[in-house]
Each structure stands twice: as structure tokens, then as C-alpha cells.
């Protein structure tokens, strides 16, 4: 074989895999990425994320099918098409979710994926600015830091949340998740720390690692029943790369798409498109889940927002010291709420506060100064699917999330909008809020709010679940992340999550790749031993137990 490992997708998981699998010089590793290099300057300047909207050269720019629950609208789904994947275009919030999320994974038959099992891999990946603790690690590749610049309105938001009785929390990844505070971000010295920066760049000089950009994977190749390589297109050239083990890390959209293009998926769907069925695997593309989000916008009495800043002034201040608004992730503050509709003691609503007017992902620029509260339902019941539109690998698949298809989802989303209004109505905002812009004064009751949600809700960019991990008939991969019934093939990305976690999905995706790579290579940490010589097995286990008891 040309390579020991072939990885499809240089996103949040793929960059981790490329680094960790190539640490052993005897492993020959090939990484294929459909996008290009992460050269764009706005990728690396944190606030530049606002300028990346609509940049087709680094964004797949997907759209969903018309959503019956959202008035027939098609929703815009940006996904990174560049080294680092979506970690190169996201808002950099570092969140792991709640311990019960992972305990539920394990209870569903995924042994080794409970909270006590995954926590060491979060810790192992992390370089925490505030230092190591039972919850956090230092010296890992992924830099997690405090914001260098915080708009004063973010502080007002936290004061208002406290006045509303929602509590404060200085670490969403600590002993408790609920409460409001400032997000920590995946940044390093005021610059974005994407998975490409954290993991791929340090490994690029290794002779046993090859990275090919502009390489669009079209099909998995087989030797008998075993996956043996990938056919890909680079410009007008079609080539095939061979490997002893093929790993799909292309994300919740592209990984199931590639499986189905290769004849692995629901037989009825593949047959309808004339694709020869190699393996009837009913769960491929199914179980699609996403966090739906609603924005409440108000006009601000004072010109302190990020709406009318001078790009030149912001850019110069950033270039001279990597400080000021240019170092902000824009969504600086937020929080986790256990609403009256929660099914257990986990937060079921997450908020992101933006000291600016933000509508339609920033594509609809509004005049004046204002503030925005994003609010999303963390554990939706709605399930959708991804299907092929045709046999053409270059054609985007059909994305059908089926938002708001259950009464529970509709109820919690209305609570999201009510809660945002409640926070803006607190005394802390009395001198700052001029008037509500959206949903607006005509929106008076829950029925009005639901209609507003149908008209304006959007994704907050967390699709998962389409190659779910498990042992049931709809599972695509086993708990070792190997595709059921296909030797030599694994899926390692957010698509393997059986259920959405209670928060942002980037950090958990990195954790998944860390855990897979280490266990594949027989890492000492994977067997419960020291990760870096800094702690004994017993110390590490005591740390895990301590966090487990308090989370």
C-alpha cells in the first residue's frame, strides 16, 4: 500500500488525526482536503469571521431543503471548505457539553464513551490559559484562552442575566455548566487557533505526512470487501490513492455523502439512483440533528456596539498588538439555562450575546447600533436525513433536518425567545435598550413568537449524527468508529455522535479524533496511563472522579 492511513477531510477531526497518526514515523499518512490552504487573513483575525460570510472559496455554502416547520424556507448552512474546516470559520467558543450527554452515549451501547472516558481526552488536547486543573489541561495542542477584548455591553448582558435570576458561571467546562459568563475561545495570542493551526501546522514538516489540497473525494475504492483507497479529483485530474486504512473525517454532510456514493447506505435510496449497493446500511445519512437558533435584536441608545466600527482603525490596532475589537470572537458572552421544559437537570437552552445587530448570519446588514441575543434549544427531538441528489460527487446532497417537527421543539424554541426578551427587560439594560427590533412590538404572545421563529430561525452550525455510533440496526460505526461490515474503513467526525451534545460541537469533535487516534495506536493514556508524564494513573483517575462527582 502507498499509505498506512488515508484521511478524507482536513477539518476539526482530520487535522487531529493527521498529527497524531503521523507522530509514529513508521506510519505513512495521506490527508486529502477538498478546499485550499488557510491563507485568508480574515481566518486568523478572530473578528474577521464577520467578513467570511459568503466567501465561497472557503465555504461549502450549503442550503437545506425547504423546511415545512419554518414556512418553507431554505436555511443557509455554512461549512468550512479549507484547512481547518469549520474550525477556520466558526466563532471559536470552547464548550464541551454536559457530562450526561456522554453518559447517554455509553448507555446506548457505546462502551468507553461515558463522561469519565472522554474527559481525559478533552484535557489531553487542551492548552488552558488559566492553567491545569481537574477539569483542564495545559501543554496540549489546542490553545484555549480568555478573550483579549470584551465589549462593555457583554458585561451588561451578564449583569442582566444575574438580575433575571439565571446565575453566573466563570467556566462552562468546569464542575457545572449552567449559568452565564464569558466564553473561552480557541485562540492563541489573539489569533484563531483552528485545528489546522493547533494540529496540522506542527506536523507539516514530517516526511511521513502528505497533505493534498483541492482534492475532492469522489468514491471509496475496495479490494474485495475491504476499503483500500479513495478516488479523488484535483482540478481536471482524477487519481486514486491507496491505503491500509481509510478514515472519513469529512463531517456530518460529506462523510455520509461519500459513503452513499460508494454504495454504502440505504439500499432503496441507492437503488433509486442506480448506484450498485455494496452494503445495505440503513443508518447512513439518517439521524441528522442540529441546533436551531432564534435571534432577538434591540436597538442601542449608545454608539458602543460593533456595528459602525472603522475597519481601518480596528485593523491597525489589531496588527499593532493583536488587541481591540479585532481580537474579539464577537459572541463574547453567553450562558446555559435549565428551562421549565427541561427533561432532566441539564441545561436545555444556550445563549450567545453579540454587541451588534446580527440578522441572517450577518448577510443582512442593518443600520444603526444594536445588540443581539442568540438562543438555541440544545436537545431537539427533530430528526432529519441527508440524501444524494444525484450520482455526481460535485453536486451538493439534499439536506433535510426537519426542524420543529415535534411539539417539544416548538415549545422550547418559544421559551428561547421569551427568555431573551426577559434578559433585555432587566434593569441593567434600561439605559442601553432603545426599542426591540425583532421580534418587534406586534409579537405579543406565544403564538406570535412561534410565527416569528418560523420566519426567522436559523442554524447555529451544529449538524451531527449522520453516521451514528452504536450497536443497533441504524448504527453506521461501532464504538471503535469502524464502519459496520466494512473492514479497513472508519468514520471519525461529528457525524458519529448518536445524540447532540449540550453545547458547541467543535471541542467534542476534536476530542473524538484524539480518542480514536490514541486507541488506534495503543496510546498509554488510552489505557489509563500518564498522558505526558506529569501525572500518575492514580492521580489522573482521581481527577476524573472528582469532576464526575461535581459535574
UniProtKB/TrEMBL annotation:
Binding, FAD: 82
UniProt cross-references to Pfam families, sorted A to Z: GMC_oxred_C, GMC_oxred_N
Domain Glucose-methanol-choline oxidoreductase N-terminal, first and last residues per copy: 80-103, 251-265
GO terms for MF: choline dehydrogenase activity; flavin adenine dinucleotide binding
Basic and acidic residues: compositionally biased ranges: 540-551
Cofactor(s) this protein requires: FAD
Family of the protein in this entry: Belongs to the GMC oxidoreductase family.
Name of the protein: Choline dehydrogenase
Organism this protein belongs to: Elongatibacter sediminis
Amino acid at each position: 500500500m502507498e499509505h498506512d492511513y488515508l484521511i478524507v477531510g482536513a477539518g476539526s477531526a482530520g487535522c487531529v488525526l493527521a498529527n497524531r497518526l503521523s507522530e509514529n514515523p513508521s506510519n505513512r499518512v495521506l490527508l486529502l482536503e477538498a478546499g485550499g490552504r488557510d491563507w485568508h487573513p480574515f481566518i486568523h483575525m478572530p473578528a474577521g469571521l464577520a467578513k467570511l460570510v459568503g466567501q465561497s472559496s472557503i465555504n461549502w455554502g450549503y442550503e437545506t431543503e425547504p423546511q415545512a416547520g419554518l414556512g418553507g424556507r431554505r436555511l443557509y448552512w455554512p461549512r468550512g471548505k479549507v484547512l481547518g474546516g469549520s474550525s477556520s470559520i466558526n466563532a471559536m467558543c470552547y464548550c464541551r457539553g454536559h457530562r450526561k450527554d456522554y453518559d447517554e452515549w455509553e448507555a446506548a451501547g457505546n462502551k468507553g464513551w461515558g463522561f469519565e472516558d472522554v474527559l481525559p481526552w478533552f484535557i489531553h488536547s487542551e492548552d488552558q490559559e488559566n492553567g491545569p486543573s481537574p477539569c483542564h489541561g495545559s501543554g496540549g495542542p489546542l490553545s484555549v484562552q480568555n478573550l483579549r477584548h470584551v465589549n462593555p455591553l457583554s458585561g451588561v448582558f451578564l449583569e442582566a442575566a444575574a438580575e433575571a435570576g439565571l446565575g453566573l458561571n466563570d467556566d462552562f467546562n468546569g464542575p457545572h455548566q449552567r449559568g452565564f459568563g464569558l466564553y473561552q475561545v480557541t485562540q492563541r495570542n489573539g489569533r484563531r487557533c483552528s485545528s489546522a493551526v493547533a494540529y496540522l501546522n506542527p506536523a507539516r514538516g514530517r516526511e511521513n505526512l502528505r497533505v493534498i489540497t483541492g482534492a475532492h473525494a469522489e468514491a471509496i475504492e475496495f479490494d474485495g470487501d475491504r476499503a483500500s483507497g479513495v478516488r479523488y479529483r484535483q482540478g481536471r485530474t482524477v487519481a486514486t490513492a491507496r491505503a491500509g486504512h481509510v478514515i472519513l473525517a469529512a463531517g456530518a454532510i460529506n462523510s455520509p455523502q461519500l459513503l452513499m456514493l460508494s454504495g454504502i447506505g440505504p439500499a432503496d435510496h441507492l437503488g433509486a439512483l442506480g448506484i450498485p449497493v455494496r452494503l445495505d446500511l440503513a443508518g447512513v445519512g439518517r439521524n441528522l440533528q442540529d441546533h436551531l437558533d432564534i435571534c432577538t435584536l434591540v436597538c442601542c441608545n449608545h454608539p458602543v456596539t460593533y456595528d459602525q466600527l472603522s475597519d481601518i482603525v480596528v485593523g491597525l490596532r489589531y496588527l499593532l498588538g493583536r488587541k481591540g475589537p479585532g481580537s474579539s470572537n464577537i459572541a463574547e458572552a453567553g450562558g446555559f439555562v435549565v428551562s421549565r421544559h427541561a427533561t432532566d437537570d441539564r441545561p436545555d437552552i444556550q445563549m450567545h450575546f453579540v454587541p451588534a445587530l446580527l440578522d441572517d448570519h450577518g448577510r443582512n446588514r442593518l443600520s444603526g447600533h444594536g445588540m443581539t441575543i442568540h438562543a438555541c434549544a440544545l436537545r431537539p427531538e427533530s430528526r432529519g436525513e441527508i440524501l444524494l441528489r444525484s450520482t455526481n460527487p460535485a453536486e451538493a446532497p439534499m439536506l433535510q433536518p426537519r426542524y420543529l417537527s415535534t411539539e417539544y421543539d416548538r415549545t422550547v424554541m418559544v421559551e428561547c425567545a421569551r427568555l431573551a426578551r426577559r434578559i433585555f427587560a432587566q434593569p441593567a439594560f434600561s439605559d442601553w435598550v432603545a426599542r426591540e427590533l425583532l421580534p418587534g412590538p406586534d409579537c405579543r404572545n406565544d403564538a406570535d413568537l412561534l410565527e416569528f421563529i418560523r420566519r426567522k430561525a436559523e442554524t447555529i452550525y451544529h449538524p451531527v449524527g449522520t453516521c451514528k455510533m452504536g450497536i443497533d440496526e441504524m448504527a453506521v460505526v461501532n464504538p471503535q468508529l469502524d464502519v459496520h461490515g466494512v473492514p479497513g474503513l472508519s468514520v471519525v467526525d461529528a457525524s458519529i455522535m448518536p445524540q447532540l451534545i449540550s453545547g458547541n460541537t467543535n471541542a467534542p469533535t476534536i476530542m473524538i479524533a484524539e480518542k480514536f487516534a490514541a486507541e488506534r495506536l495503543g496510546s498509554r493514556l488510552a489505557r489509563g496511563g500518564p498522558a505526558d508524564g506529569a501525572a500518575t494513573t492514580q492521580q489522573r483517575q482521581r481527577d476524573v472522579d472528582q469532576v464526575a462527582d461535581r459535574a
